[in-house]
């Protein structure tokens, strides 16, 4: 249908974008898996044809003619494949054609999304498709019979009718068995049943909802006029199924005159009595909320609905406010020193419900990684084709779920990592064989849950990282803050994550767009995650991305330093203790260290670090909190622990972030008493400890 | 009085736009996303005054849907309209044999759609 401006609406456009995007993803997967086995199965051809057909239809309706025309040309191609089933098709060319088509439509959809006109020129692509089709025809129909099947030539006529509908009109007079009582209700349920087979129903008496109708029905019988597609015997049989029917008189009417009269009289009566054409009775049902039919209607409704993400975000925000409000009530300063047994009981109940609610809200936002992972097939396909490396992508644990917001942030980094692996990691086939490896390079994409984190692992079996090269490059860019001899292999590998580091000399089309691994790190860190690299020279590289299940609400330990409050994510805390003065040692650079059970850890005085005035500066008066992140440990010195609570992470205002660039802060939160607490970024702090 | 229509199409965009146009024209609209769901709704819900169906759909296509619906006694003469894009003669003929009442070629205007419905007296 052509959607004129009268009907075109925002939801329709949104639906179009959503649907087409989904179809394109499905199509892409279909194409790539077909290409892998070097043939198109009959099902695949049907599926691709159907998708292109749908896109063509919807795009034409929304007046996106370029998309529609392109989809049409691909549809024609697959129509031919489906009907003629030609042998020896050039599979890889066909895949290229379709994928180029997909890319074009995707780009157009992006334009539509951002409110621009979709005016891209698809004519070269269409011509290429037509060319391919012509060549196919020449090969498979060598007899010279150019066209055997009529191509979808649009008909001049837009619509037509084969046969006009016809219906039968019946008149039934029904007498119920004597003494069955509630005749009007029985009549009503009879009408309800008839609605399943009749196009229109009228009856006398009209006011069967009233109980005095029973009297009339008892004396004169219940008269029903109905229009239906059913034949006499069928209607008769249908009516006789009803209970308590004593007598049924069913007549075939030549004209629907009587029925029309009733229809008119019902109209005149207005809304006073229940009008008994079908849709009105449907309305009535919903109004009264009664009857099994209601249930029936509900049961066929789908059990999944789609919700605007903005609403989910709002729900999440409100959930956060709720957690804060709960803390504000239960930890209200006014309650200090009061013994409130009942209040505590109620507060516990409130807490139980809010945390349950929180779990539900979180679970609503969880999305499996499968779509993101599946996208990588296309990346691998394009890359391996361009670089002429044979690559196999293995996906493990794609059903693992993460927060919707996080998904959006990891798609690009993942793509970058996969590209890196193919471009820099995997060797060319000859080199691989020389090294005694199978010529087919393998990349594994794995996701799994680990506590409150999700691990995403990108692994290749390529040449691995060259330590000497990394060190040289890092030295050149002054990225090393520690004697090289003391660095572990892991520390060396992780140098490549630092800003301004790139080992590949030449920039290739795919992975070296002037950005390196540091962009990956930055992206992941922006959602509170971390990246680690491990490698074995000659055996491959593994990049591990660790991201929190959710961002917004964390379990935190509140601590105080002077008048300031800080919050440490509970998950990072190993232990807290008060040290003896003798445990403190100093390294040659005058950095304070502490000896715990024979291990030496760097010490950070929070009051010094953030310039907070406090009376507690002796270790024996305050408390030490040992925190760990990514196998790096540091001890923080604070005045005292305040207690554990769930906190809602709020981002630091941008002027604070940009102006002062305070290190080691992940955000801030509101405490129960209304004061602000700064959330410590443990990864940042442990990093400081190491390079200090 | 409101006529009830069943709209069958695998594209949610098409369903939404048909619903928009038809509801504005005063019809009560029910949707199904393929032939299978349509048959289920036809069998379990009060009778529809007409069915408008796409032909190319997963699970069960429009032609089979029309055939199956025609076999239900109460739908013996009910208008079953097909939405076609391949307006080739054989598709239309196939539909006619299956028992379709008429056809509309996509893309069409809302006015054309409403005109067809009027023609089949729905």
Low-confidence stretches of chain A: 144-156, 270-302, 505-514
By helix and strand content of chain B, what is the structural category? alpha/beta
What is the mean predicted local confidence, pLDDT of chain A?
78
Structural Rg of chain B: 13 Å
Description:
The complex is a heterodimer of chains A (692) and B (122). Chain A has 692 residues and is α+β, with helices and mostly antiparallel strands. The longest helix of chain A has 27 residues, at 10-36. Chain A starts with 9 loop residues before the first helix and ends with a helix. Chain B has a five-stranded parallel sheet, with helices on both faces. By secondary structure, chain B is an alpha/beta fold. In chain B, 43% of the residues lie in helices and 20% in strands.
Summary of the model, kept short:
The complex is a heterodimer of chains A (692) and B (122). Chain A has 692 residues and is an alpha+beta fold.
Topology:
The complex is a heterodimer of chains A (692) and B (122).
Chain A: H1 10-36, H2 42-61, H3 65-84, H4 91-113, H5 123-140, E1 159-161, E2 168-176, H6 183-194, E3 198-204, H7 213-220, E4 222-228, H8 232-240, E5 245-253, H9 257-268, H10 278-288, H11 292-300, H12 309-330, H13 341-365, E6 366-368, H14 370-387, E7 391-396, E8 401-403, H15 404-425, H16 429-434, E9 441-450, E10 453-460, H17 467-476, H18 489-494, H19 517-526, E11 530-536, E12 540-548, E13 553-561, E14 564-569, E15 573-577, E16 584-586, E17 592-596, E18 599-605, H20 606-609, E19 623-629, E20 632-638, E21 640-648, H21 654-660, E22 665-670, E23 676-680, H22 682-691
Parallel strand pairs in A: 7-9, 14-23, 18-20
Antiparallel strand pairs in A: 2-4, 2-5, 3-4, 6-8, 9-10, 10-12, 11-12, 13-14, 13-21, 15-19, 16-17, 17-18, 19-20, 22-23
Helix pairs in contact in A: 1-2, 1-4, 1-14, 2-3, 3-4, 3-5, 4-5, 12-13, 14-15, 15-19
Chain B: E1 4-8, H1 12-24, E2 28-32, H2 35-44, E3 50-54, H3 62-70, E4 80-84, H4 89-98, E5 102-105, H5 110-119
Parallel strand pairs in B: 1-2, 1-3, 3-4, 4-5
Helix pairs in contact in B: 2-3
């Amino acid at each position: 249908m052509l959607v004129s401006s009268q009907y075109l609406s925002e939801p329709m456009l949104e639906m179009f974008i959503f649907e087409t995007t989904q179809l394109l993803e499905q199509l892409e997967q279909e194409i790539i898996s077909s290409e892998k086995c070097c043939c198109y199965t009959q099902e695949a051809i049907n599926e691709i044809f159907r998708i292109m057909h749908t896109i063509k239809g919807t795009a034409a309706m929304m007046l996106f003619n370029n998309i529609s025309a392109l989809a049409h040309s691909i549809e024609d191609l697959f129509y031919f494949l489906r009907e003629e089933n030609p042998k020896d098709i050039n599979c890889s060319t066909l895949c290229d054609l379709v994928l180029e088509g997909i890319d074009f439509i995707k780009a157009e959809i992006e334009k539509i999304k951002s409110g621009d006109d979709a005016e891209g020129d698809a004519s070269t692509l269409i011509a290429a498709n037509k060319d391919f089709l012509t060549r196919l025809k020449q090969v498979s129909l060598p007899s010279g019979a150019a066209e055997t099947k009529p191509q979808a030539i649009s008909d001049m006529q837009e619509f037509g009718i084969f046969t006009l509908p016809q219906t039968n009109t019946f008149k039934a007079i029904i007498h119920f068995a004597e003494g069955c009582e509630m005749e009007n209700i029985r009549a009503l349920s009879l009408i309800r049943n008839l609605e399943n087979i009749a196009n229109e129903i009228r009856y006398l008496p009209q006011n069967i909802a009233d109980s005095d109708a029973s009297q009339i029905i008892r004396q004169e019988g219940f008269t029903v006029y109905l229009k239906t597609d059913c034949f006499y015997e069928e209607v008769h049989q249908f009516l006789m199924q009803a209970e308590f029917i004593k007598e049924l008189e069913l007549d075939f009417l030549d004209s629907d005159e009587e029925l029309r009269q009733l229809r008119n009289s019902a109209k005149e009566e207005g809304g006073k009595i229940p009008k008994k054409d079908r849709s009105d009775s449907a309305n009535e049902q919903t109004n009264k909320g009664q009857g099994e039919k209601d249930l029936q209607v509900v049961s066929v409704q789908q059990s999944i609905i789609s919700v605007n993400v903005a609403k989910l975000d709002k729900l999440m925000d409100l959930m956060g406010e709720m957690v804060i409000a709960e803390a504000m009530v239960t930890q209200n300063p006014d309650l200090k020193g009061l013994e409130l047994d009942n209040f505590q009981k109620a507060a516990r109940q409130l807490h139980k419900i809010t945390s349950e609610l929180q779990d539900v809200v979180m679970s609503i936002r969880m999305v499996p990684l499968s779509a993101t992972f599946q996208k990588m097939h296309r990346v691998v396909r394009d890359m391996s084709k361009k670089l002429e490396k044979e690559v196999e992508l293995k996906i493990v644990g794609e059903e693992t779920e993460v927060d919707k917001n996080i998904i959006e942030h990891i798609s690009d980094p993942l793509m970058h990592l996969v590209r890196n692996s193919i471009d820099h990691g995997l060797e060319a086939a000859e080199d691989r064989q020389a090294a005694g490896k199978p010529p087919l390079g393998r990349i594994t994409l794995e996701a799994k849950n680990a506590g409150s984190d999700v691990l995403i692992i990108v692994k290749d079996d390529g040449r691995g990282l060259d330590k000497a090269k990394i060190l040289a490059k890092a030295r050149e860019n002054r990225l090393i803050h520690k004697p090289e001899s003391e660095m572990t292999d892991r520390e060396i590998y992780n140098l490549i994550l630092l800003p301004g580091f790139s080992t590949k000399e030449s920039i290739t089309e795919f992975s070296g767009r002037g950005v390196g691994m540091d962009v990956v790190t930055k992206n992941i860190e922006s959602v509170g995650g971390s990246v680690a690299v491990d490698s074995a020279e000659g055996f491959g590289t593994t990049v591990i991305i660790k991201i929190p299940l959710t961002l917004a609400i964390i379990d935190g330990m509140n601590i105080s330093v002077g008048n300031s409050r800080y919050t440490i994510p509970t998950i990072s805390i190993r232990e807290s203790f008060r040290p003896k003065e003798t445990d403190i040692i100093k390294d040659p650079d005058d950095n304070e260290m502490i000896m715990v059970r024979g291990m030496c850890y760097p010490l950070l005085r929070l009051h010094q670090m953030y310039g907070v005035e406090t009376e507690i500066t002796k270790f024996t008066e305050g408390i030490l909190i040992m925190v760990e992140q990514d196998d790096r440990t540091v001890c923080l010195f604070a005045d005292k622990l305040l207690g554990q609570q769930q906190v809602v992470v709020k981002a630091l205002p941008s002027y604070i972030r940009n102006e002062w660039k305070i290190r080691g802060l992940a955000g801030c939160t509101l405490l129960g008493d209304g004061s602000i607490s700064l959330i410590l970024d443990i990864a940042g702090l442990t990093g400081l400890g190491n390079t200090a | 009085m409101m006529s009830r229509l069943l709209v069958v199409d695998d594209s949610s965009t098409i369903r939404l736009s048909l619903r928009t146009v038809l509801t504005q024209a005063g019809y009560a609209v029910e949707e199904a996303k393929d032939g299978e769901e349509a048959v289920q709704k036809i069998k379990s819900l009060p009778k529809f005054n007409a069915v408008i169906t796409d032909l190319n759909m997963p699970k069960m296509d429009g032609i089979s849907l029309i055939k199956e619906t025609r076999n239900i006694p109460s739908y013996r003469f009910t208008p079953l309209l097909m939405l076609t894009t391949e307006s080739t003669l054989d598709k239309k003929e196939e539909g006619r044999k299956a028992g379709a009442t008429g056809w509309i070629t996509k893309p069409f205007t809302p006015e054309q759609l409403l005109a067809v419905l009027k023609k089949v007296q729905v």
